Amino acid sequence: MGLLSLATFFPLLGMVLILFIPKKNISAIKIVALVTTFLSLVLTSYMWSQYDYSLHGINMESQFQFVEHFSWIATYHIEYFIGVDGLSFPMVWLSSLLSFLAIIASWNIPKAQKGYFSLFLLLATSMMGVFVSLDFFLFYVFWEVMLLPMYFLIGIWGGPRREYAAIKFFLYTLAGSVLMLLAMLAFYFNVTDPVTGGHTFNMLHMFDQNNHIGLLKTFDGRFWLYIALFIGFAIKVPVFPFHTWLPDAHVEAPTAISVILAGILLKMGTYGLIRISYPILPDIARYTSYALAVLGVINILYGAFVAMAQKDLKKLVAYSSVSHMGFVMLGMAVFTEAGINGAVFQMFSHGIITAMLFLLVGVIYDRAHHREIDGFGGLAVSMPVYTGIASLAFFAALGLPGFTGFIAEAMVFIGAFPVYRVLTIIAALGIIITAGYILWMVQRVFLGKLNPKYENIGDINTRELSMLIPLGILTIFFGIYPMPVLNMMKMSLNYLLTLIP
Amino acid sequence: MIQTALFIWLLPLAAFTIQILFGKRLPRKGDWVSITAIGISFVLAISLLIQALTHYDPEFVVTASIPWIDLGSFKINMGIYLDNLAIIMLMVVTTVSFLVHVYSLGYMKGETYYNRFYAYLSLFSFSMLGLILWDNLFGIYIMWELVGICSYLLIGFYFEKDSAANAGKKAFITNRVGDFGFLIGLLIVFTSLGTFNLSEINLGVSQGMLSGGLLTAAGILLFAGAIGKSAQFPLHVWLPDAMEGPTPVSALIHAATMVAAGVYLMARLSFMLSFDAMLVVAYVGGFTALFSATIAITQNDIKRVLAYSTISQLGYMIMAIGVGAYTAGFFHLVTHAMFKAGLFLASGSVIHAVHHSMDKIGEHGDPNDMRNMGGFKSKMPITYLVFLIFSLALSGIPFFSGFLSKDAILGGSLAFALAQHNPIHFLLPVFGFLAAAITAFYMFRLIIMTFYGEPKKPKLFEHIHESPKTMTIPLLTLAFLSLFFVYTIPSINPTTGEGGWFYHLIEKPVSAVSTQLGHAVYQMTEHAEHLAHVSGLMISIVLALAGILLAFAFYFWKKIDVEALTEKIKPLYLLSLNKYYIDEIYNATVIRGLLIWNDFLSWFDGAVIDGLVNSTAWIVRNFSVLDGLFDTYVVDGLVNGVGSAVSAFGKSLRKVQTGQIQNYVLGAVLGTAIIIILTMI
Fold first, then answer.
1. 3-state secondary structure of B400
2. Is the alpha carbon torsion for A462, A467, A472, A473 positive or negative?
3. What single DSSP character describes residue B211?
4. Which residue among A338, B478, B543, B548 has the highest number of C-beta atoms inside a 10 angstrom radius?
5. How confident is the model at residue B456 (pLDDT cuts 50, 70, 90)?
């Protein structure tokens, strides 16, 4: 077993271990979860240190790193084929980091800890699996496996309307999965393996246009397959108008699950589009790019406007995710170096920043047991450290220079402007609206007279700081010096652009 | 030199980092950390200025840069561009910042968040110095946003007061509106020229790679950023509210340095302004100069008078850039930084005294209200003296620095109008001269109300004291820097700065815009400037003196009854007192509209989009119920009729129909998969 498999399956190993620990022994369960996710993080970090920045990945097996390639179900040409490149590795590393931090965030889960942590570890493995898979079937398996723990984690450990939210999330994503399944099978039957001449689930074979036959030779076939796949991925992003599951899921989900949901799951949609849709159907990607850009701009502005109207802090953060994911869509729709690198950097950056935001909402919810923005006021007096960290995170979210979000958004604007001038100008209005909803919220929660109810509210504790400080350092470090991540991304993404007609 | 510049820039950042992390635990809450850092920066800036003076070369420039973002074809380099403009600007910022740091020792003593105040001051100094030093527009934009957030933090320093929290938010968001334009301008420049570097932009524009309407658009959009930052009409609304911040902050950020960043930016970019863009710049500046001067007349809050005065003076500088009086505009930036920072610090000294006196007699009033003051001259002689010097400088009276620079701007605008064949452009000097007269009037109205006459509240007056040395020494320093010869050395001619070191070091850059018309006008203006100088000089002295005399006639000798006059022109008076109702108009239109729009979209999101989702679910669910009934009565009935063996099968089938939609969908997915797998085999 290679390093990448180890990193991916460590959490699953933890889950198996937990199954043998008695339900009562909560601390042992937590420690197993903490250690296995930590080891996974250590492994991915080690892999980063060993990462070869000269390889571009995307469509050549020899250009991928940490590759493991075996036959799995030979009858149907299904393979265990994993590896990473500049597109996936930042996401893999981020997944392992957020999984570890989310375990810390889950430390005080009130009930059924054994079930919670085993499901969480299953979720962690399946997330990593999605980002490392290079076989479409394997990708699909991880993608679907992820749904199950997510459904239960929201449905059992969530807030008052958890069941509604969980079913909504489940059905919505499942609807997307159906379309993805159909598209996957269509690819399977219409791509030949250049070596064996049979069908194949190998993504890299699917990327090679010479292997396409039948349906994939017709424009209509390609177009509708792209649309089917797009809807499957769009629901995850979520692209307007498929976004309404997101606020419900976030509001009901426990803090750690919101962190994973916003930090990692949303990125799977845009990741899937870039990893799978773009290289298999580059011509259709180009053909539909204007629509994607328009949807991106709608996401940016619509998300920001609706965020401003929210009364629930967590909903506001959820809609801010809709808005920020719009930058990813706009950036990837323009096929320029600055645009697509900006898009993927925004995926990475938003993963860090939004994780901070949800953790911060969790901190205040644990103390006040509500999230009404107007129900606070003046918290800066009673919780100065918390206010400091929260200001940092919210300034990062509003795209202040010095943080990663600014670089990502600036790159998207720079990349998009020469291609779609008017759209970019409209999108840039988002910088005003975003400053508006964030500063207004900051004022209502932290500034003004201290609400006497919260005079003795405790400031942020060490456990909470231990999650937020690393994320804060990351967003500042990569906000000042983004090249370590961009060097990785640019090899793959610039190469990918050469494949788009 | 680059190394020195880097030290100047980064020392305050180091101080900020130490302060924000450990400030509370350090002795004296770490104020000495910030002061030491900015003090060293100040000394280093002096050394740079000395070097610039020894070179004595208008063309002097040193640069250095490193790659920052490199994606292959997309590259951004970050570097330092150190010319005389930057060095003098460094000098201005470090001087004012250092003096404000020292002054705050007294003024902010005993504040709850004392350490945080110094931390923010350090962060601001770092950002502002970076803004000056960067050699590219992207870097300038970064620092531009950072000074904005520092301003937000410092305006909202007394965040428990709603008015302070509101003012901070308003400042940042209003600035973002301008930054929206700035950003689009940046994008146009980068798209056309592929670079953010100022020298490369200059080269690209002079080669005609960015020209015509697009160049004009880029110029105006970049100027939009300056409209926000330098509080020009119609985005000026944030600056008066920004006076909610502590007074040293008003002096440093909202008078001397940050608000001048817009002027600095336009000075840096003046080479790429097309003639049309310059006209826009000139008119926005000229109009703002007059417009906000007319508001300053009626304000009773001492800091608000100064705030509107700042807007007005920034308007002068902007107009100067617009009419091509580049050196004059930057000169006014420098002289204004000194005397306006001085005015704010001096007014802070007054407010400080009133505040303490109010505390002593247990009164809760507004310490900024000039209607409670009067007669302070005898109690605060130093404050009075410096206040007078600063006011004379601001009013444009000879022998003070403001006279030299303001007169140069007025001369420049007159020259511009003379050089144009369109008489409408005489509006610009008219704006300027009128504003000059009004400025002298409102400044002496302020001085008379505060320092002359009988005390309005004798009890309060009793406890008024002169401020401590930490506050008066910075004031005296700034007063010294408001004297004319500081800027005219080696010449000692009190009527013009030409011949002095400043004019020698700062020369108008050659325009890169190649249109013949624009260029010709530019040249002519310079020529006309000399002709206009003498007439401008005479008019401005007469107007300034008239303004001062009028102020004395109104408020000191009481020859004219103010009350009766305001009654007579009540509509005009109310218009000025209420700042032309611009805040009210914005609230009723933009802000209200935005909030309604947000609520509408939020409703739309819940009722329409989510409604569609939920009703789809409802339909599917009910359909499955129908299906279940059909199953029970039709299918099952049929089955029962067929036979018991089949009926058992039917019963087992019924169990599958749970009414849970997810099971159905799961079934459908599995079914599809099975069918496909079957066809494969």
1. strand
2. positive
3. -
4. B478
5. confident
Contacts 24+ apart (CB under 8 A), B187-193: B187/A413, B187/A414, B187/A417, B187/A424, B188/A417, B188/B214, B188/B217, B188/B218, B188/B221, B189/B137, B189/B218, B189/B222, B190/A414, B190/A417, B191/A417, B191/A418, B192/B218
B396 close to B402: Cβ distance less than 8 angstroms: yes
With a cut of 70, say whether residue A415 has pLDDT above it. yes
Inter-chain contact B165–A440, Cβ cutoff 8 Å?
Answer: no
pLDDT score of B528 more than 80: no
If you write DSSP's letter for every residue of A127-166 in order, what string do you get? Answer: HHHHHHB-BHHHHHHHHHHHHHHHHHHHHHHS-TTHHHHH
Cα–Cα separations (whole angstroms), residue B357 to A12, B354, B467, B565? 70, 5, 12, 33
**Tokens 């209420």 — which residue?**
B578
Q: Residue B618 has which token pair?
A: 């409802």
Angle made by CA atoms B9, B14, B16, in degrees to the nearest 5: 100
Any B CB within 8 A of A291 CB: no
Quickly count: other Cβ atoms within 10 Å of residue A350's Cβ. 28
Report domain extents, chain A. 1-287, 303-501
Distance, in Å, from the CA atom of B572 to the CA atom of B297, rounded to the nearest integer, reads 12
Q: Which amino acid is at B502?
A: F
Q: State how far the Cα of B444 lies from the Cα of B455, in Å rounded to an integer.
A: 17
Q: Name the token pair of A8.
A: 């991916």
Q: In this structure, what token pair is assigned to residue A319? A: 């809609």
Helix (H) or strand (E) holding B78: strand B75-83
B665 to A175: CB separation less than 8 angstroms, yes or no: yes
| CA distances for B109 relative to B31, B104, B112, B113, B115, angstroms | 10, 7, 9, 10, 10
Among A371-375, B179-183, B649-653, the least confident range? B649-653
Best CA proximity match to A447, nearest among A378, A401, A498, A399: A378
- DSSP lists the bridge partners of residue A79 as A71
Longest dimension (CA), chain A: 74
Closest partner residue to A447 (CB to CB) among B69, B159, B179 is B159
Chain B residues whose beta carbon lies within 8 Å of the beta carbon of residue A250: none
By mean pLDDT, which of A155-164, A310-319, B95-104, B309-318 is the weakest?
A155-164
Does residue A446 belong to the interface with chain B, where contact is any CB pair within 8 Å?
Answer: yes
Per-residue model confidence (pLDDT) at position B511? 79
Residues in Cβ contact with A43 at an 8 Å cutoff, skipping those fewer than 6 apart: A3, A6, A7, A10, A96
Tokens at B74, concatenated? 């997309």
Minimal CA separation from B606 to chain A, in Å: 8
Q: How far apart are CA B351 and CA B345, in angstroms?
A: 10
Q: Cis bond leading into A241, ω under 30°?
A: yes
Report the C-alpha gap between B629 and B637 in whole angstroms: 11
Q: Which residue has the tokens 């701007």?
A: B409
Tokens of A308: 């401003």
Select from B99, B117, B119 the least CA-distant residue to B108: B117
- Burial readout B304-318 (b: 16 or more C-beta within 10 A, e: otherwise): bbbbbbbbbbbbbbb
Amino acid at A299: N
Taking the model in full, what pTM does it have? Answer: 0.91
pLDDT score, position B576: 85
Please indicate if any CB of chain B lies within 8 Å of the CB of A435: yes
B512 or B276: which carries more pLDDT confidence? B276
Rounded Cα distance between B76 and B281, Å, is 29
A417 touches chain B (CB under 8 A): yes
Full DSSP string of B92-143? HHHHHHHHHHHHHHHHTTT-TTHHHHHHHHHHHHHHHHHHHHBSBHHHHHHH
| Burial A239-254, CB ≥16 within 10 A → b, else e | bbbbbbbbbbbbbbbb
**Which of A262-266, B104-108, B569-573 holds the top average pLDDT?**
A262-266
